[in-house]
Amino acid sequence: MGNCCDNNDKSYDVAVIGAGSAGFSAAITAADEGASVVLIGHGTIGGTCVNVGCVPSKAMIRAVEIMHSARVSDRFDGVEASAKITDWAAVIRQKQALVDDLRTAKYIDVLPNYEAIKYMEGVAQFQADGSLTVNGEVITASKIIIATGSRPHVPDISGIESIMWLDSTSALELEVLPESMMIMGGGYVGVELAQMFSRAGVKVTVVTRSRLLPEAEPEIAEALTQYFEAEGISIITGVTYDCFEKSGKNIILHGQKSGEPVKIISERLLLTTGRVPNTSSLNLHNAGIKMDAHGGIVTDRTMQTSQENIYAAGDVTGRDQFVYMAAYGAKLAAKNATNGERLVYDNSTMPTVVFSDPQVASVGLTEYSANEQGIETITSILPLKYVPRALAARDTRGLIKLVADKNNKKLLGAHILAPEGADSIQTAAMALKAGMTYDDLGSMIFPYLTTVEGLKLAAQTFEKDVAKLSCCAG
Known about the structure:
- α1 (21-32) runs parallel beside α8 and α3 packs across α6 (188-199).
- The protein is globular.
- It folds into three domains: 4-50 and 93-152 and 276-339, FAD/NAD(P)-binding domain, CATH 3.50.50; 160-272, 3-Layer(bba) Sandwich (FAD/NAD(P)-binding domain); 352-463, FAD/NAD-linked reductase, C-terminal dimerisation domain (Enolase-like, domain 1, 2-Layer Sandwich), CATH 3.30.390.30.
- The protein has 13 helices and 21 strands.
- 29% of the residues lie in helices and 24% in strands.
C-alpha cells in the first residue's frame, strides 16, 4: 500500500466519501491496514450523531429529566422538590458547547494522528465516464467507500411547503420554547423529542399513521403510550394526512381517523418521519451503483455495492441507522476493500435503545418477526413490579419481554421497558450471542437490586411464578 504523504497526483488506495462516524471508521481502519486514504467531507465534519443527533438530543433529554424528577418526588414520603427552567437559551448554548467540544476531540483532532489520511473538503460526484471528482478535480483510487449518511425525510403533504416546519436538527436549536408543538411520526426520534419538549413545558401532540414505536413489541408500545399520556402528551394514532394550513401563528393539520375528519392545531410542527440516504448529489448512476426504492445504496453482506471496487456503509445504505452500526459496517468495508477479505455484516444481536423514560431497549427477534420466520415461540412477560430494583426506586413503570424457541428454549429476543433499561440490554445481547437458553439465563448469578436482575427473573418466569420466590432465590 502507498503513503498519501508521497502522493501529489491525487491517487490513493482508498477514497472515503463522507466524514461522519462511518467515514472516519472506514478511513482509520484503511489507514491502519496500510492504505493511503483520502477522506472527503462536505459540510460540518463529524456527521449526524455528534452534531445534530445522539449527542445533543441525549444532553437535552438529561437536562429536562430534572423537571420530571421534581414533579414525581412525592413517590417518597417526606420528600418535596421543585425545579424550573430559568433560561432555555442557556441550556441550548451549553448543549452546543458540548457538541463543539466532542466534534473537535473525536473528529478534527483525530486526523493529525494519521499521516496516511488526507482530508479534502468538497462535493464528491461520479462523472459520466465513472470517474470520481471532488469540486471537479479527478480523484483516482483503487477502492471507494461511500459513507455520506442521511438527512431528515420531508413527507409529501399538501401545504407543507408553505409552513415553517422543524426537523430534529432545527428543533434542538430553538432558543425560545413554543407554547405547543405537533410532532409527526412515532418512531424513536419522535418519541424522544416529544417527551423532552413536554418536560420542558411545551404542550405536545404526537400524530402518527400507526402507533408509537411501530417496530417494538406491542406490549411495550402500549405501555409507553400510557406513560406518555399520564405525563400530559397527547397521542393521536391511525391518522391519514390530508393537508396543512397556516392560521395566524398556528399550523393546522387536516386528516382522517377511523373515517372521520380530524383537525390538529399547534404553534410549531416537528417532522420526525424517518431519514433519507444522502445519495442524490453523487450521480451514482454514472458509476453503475444499484440503489433501492428509497435511494439507499444496495450492498451485499460484505458491504460491497454492485461495483466490485466500491463499498458503502452507514445510513447511506438505508439500514440499521445507528452510529455504532455505521462505524461497524464501515470497518468491515475498509478491511474487505484493502485486504480482499470477506468479512460479513451481522446485525442478529444488534442492541437498540430509545432514550425515552422509561427507556426502550431491544435485541434480537420480536415475537412477530420470529413467527414470520416460521419459528414456534414461547414468551415471558415480567412487569417491573416484580423487580426489586423498581420497588426500591418506587418506580415500577415498565416490563421485560423475552422471546424463545418453544422447541429448544433458545433465547431469540429480549425487550426491556424500564427507567434504566438501556444499561441492561447488552447482557441480553451477549446471552443471545452465546446461544443461551432461558434456563441458562435464569440460573446465572445477578447482582441484587439492579435493573439487569430483571432479565434473570424474566427468564425464570417462563416456567416459574416469581411472585412465589424469595429475594435472590432461583
